[in-house]
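As promised in the previous annual report, we have extended the structural survey to additional targets. Below is the entry for Dynactin subunit 5.
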Amino acid sequence: VAFFPLQMGDHVFVGERAVVNAAVVGSYVYIGKNAVI
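The corresponding structure token record, generated without further manual editing, is:
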């Protein structure tokens, strides 16, 4: 099992069944349903 850094800004919404791995997500972001990042 490997772990990768994840940084999320303020007011971020992650939808149902979304997968977010090893990313930098800014502020005021909407990640939709079933998204893979």
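Residues 15 and 32 are 5 Å apart (CA to CA). The chain has no helices and four strands. These points will be discussed at the next consortium meeting with the crystallography subgroup.
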